[in-house]
Recover the amino acids of this structure.
């Protein structure tokens, strides 16, 4: 009986040491990006397989996300715009820009909608304030960077995180990109679009998609062993093996 108690005590001691020496893997932001180079200011791309593939990968991570395609707004509508993302909540679009309706071709400068006839057109920064914290955000960009502008996204909720979109700078007119990101560790209530060539390079945007933490789904914390934790685990297995031998004897 004493041997059994001593063995159990050793087993528990090693087990708690093992728990104390593990670390949790922190979820890193996941990004999705695809780009299809344009054919010039007056030509609308008829397909954008790289951008569409990035969007499909992004949406595959979400359940019933909300998307805004600007079709419900009047041509020429300006901020503030009240946006309804359905299950993901509501939002207000603020800043510089307007809804542009281009049923066919381009607007003459390489910009056009992806879905429907309308898109958001902006030559400077604008931002979206969400009614509740989000962890996922994706969108199409049209004619981004053809006049040396670099697109950035800054998302914040107490602290700010800026992402530089990896699109081609000085790309042909009419280029289409899709960019999405998921950051489970930093739910945000504000997303700001930045343009390093504000007033010179004008960007088009369509199909904004957002998702809350619940729409992405639960993430299981994965324990990661430190070197000392690995030694503790080996010790735990040794104790189990020794107790098994004693029981057989």
């Amino acid at each position: 009986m004493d041997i059994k108690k001593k063995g159990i005590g050793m087993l528990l001691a090693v087990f708690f040491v093992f728990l104390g020496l593990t670390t949790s893997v922190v979820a890193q932001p996941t990004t999705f990006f695809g780009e299809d180079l344009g054919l010039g200011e007056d030509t609308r791309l008829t397909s954008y397989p790289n951008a569409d593939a990035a969007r499909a990968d992004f949406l595959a991570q979400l359940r019933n996300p909300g998307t805004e395609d600007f079709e419900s707004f009047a041509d020429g509508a300006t901020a503030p715009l009240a946006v309804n993302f359905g299950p993901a909540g509501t939002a207000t679009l603020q800043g510089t820009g307007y809804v542009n309706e281009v049923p066919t071709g381009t607007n003459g400068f390489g910009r056009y909608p992806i879905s429907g006839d309308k898109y958001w057109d902006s030559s400077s920064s604008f931002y979206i304030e969400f009614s509740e914290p989000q962890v996922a955000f994706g969108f199409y960009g049209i004619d981004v960077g053809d006049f040396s502008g670099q697109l950035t996204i800054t998302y914040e909720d107490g602290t700010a995180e800026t992402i530089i979109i990896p699109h081609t700078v000085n790309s042909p007119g009419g280029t289409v990109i899709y960019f999405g990101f998921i950051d489970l560790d930093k739910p945000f209530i504000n997303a700001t679009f930045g343009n390093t060539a504000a007033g010179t390079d004008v960007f088009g945007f369509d199909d904004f998609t957002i998702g809350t933490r619940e729409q992405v789904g639960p993430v299981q914390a994965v324990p990661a062993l430190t070197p000392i934790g690995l030694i503790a685990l080996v010790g735990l297995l040794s104790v189990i093996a020794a107790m098994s031998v004693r029981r057989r004897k």
